[in-house]
Amino acid sequence: MRGVIVINFGGQYAHLIARRIRDLGIYAEILPYIMAEKEQIEKLNPTAIILSGGPSSVYEPGAPSVGDWIFDLDIPILGICYGFQLIAKKLGGHIVKSRGEYGPTKVKILEKKGIFDGWDEEEIVWMSHSDHISKVPQELSVTALSENGYVAAFRHRKKEIYGVQFHPEVKHTPKGQILLKNFALSISKSERNWSTEAILSTILEELRREVKDCKSILSAVSGGIDSTVATVLVNKVAGDRLTSIFVNHGLLRKNEPEEVLKTLKEMSINPIYVDASDKFLSSLRGVTSCEEKRKIIGELFIKVFIEALEGKEFDCFVQGTLYPDIIESGREPGADRIKSHHNVAGLPEWLEAKVIEPLKFLYKDEVRRIAAELGLPKKLVERHPFPGPGLAVRVIGEVTEEKLRIVREASSIVEEVLREEGLYNEVWQAFAVVGDDKWVGVKGDARVDGYIVTVRIVESEDAMTAGWYRIPYHVLEKISKRITSIIPEVTMVTYSITTKPPSTIEPC
Ligand code: XMP
Question: Average model confidence (pLDDT) for the chain?
Answer without folding.
Answer: 91
